[in-house]
Fold this sequence. Notes:
Number of domains: 1
CATH topology: Rossmann fold
CATH class: Alpha Beta
Mean pLDDT: 94
Largest sheet: 8 strands, mixed
Number of strands: 11
Shape: globular
Helix content: 25-40%
Oligomer: single chain
Order of helices and strands: HHEEHHEHEEEHEEHEEE
Amino acid sequence: MTETERKKKLGPYKRAVLEATERSGAVRTEEDGMVLYKYSGYEAYKDVQISGNKAKLRMQFVKESHIVILSDYITQNLGEVSFAICHGTRRGAEQAWFRDNLNDSANVIGTEISDTASQFANTVQWDFHETNPEWSNQADFIYSNSWDHAFEPEKAFLAWIDALRPGGLLLLDHSKGQSPDAANPLDPFGITFERLVQFFEERFGDYGELKDAIDTRKQNKEYRARVLVFEKSS
Length: 234
């Protein structure tokens, strides 16, 4: 069996990870409760992420039932939403589901580093590590299940906090897919939930505070996750 034939037998996710491993030159680094792959440079990271996006374009990880739960939480804690951002949404499902389940005037957009962003409604092409001055202090909430694609997580989270309005909420899913064991050159950041909490307490305490996590592992069997909730200071 040739290498090409072997790759074709893999599913889209495993094939994307294999190709990312072959082309990225990323080096695994590890500390207590956290794994981070480091690339040879930004272009290598960007190339891997765009290729991985296109390889997984038909895949959808988050379920609508999870977004319904988060929408109820957001409505209860924030009231009506004016503007919100979902980072790393690929096909744009998350922002569409939030729009369906929040108030009618909620403008929820998604970001994606790949040029495929133009194919999906309410999606903009953007590297989520970068601060966007047009979004600063504007978002009622920011949501992501794709934060494990960050190669500089502190930079990414600071950009997201910058976009939150005072009192706004950052919601980060954490499932088995974001654990240290799951990290790879395509999903370079893996961390335990406890270490993620500590990471926020240590790095971002000057910007806000952690709220009680949302634990959907028993409530929603089709998408088991804990959601870290960070509130920006008023």
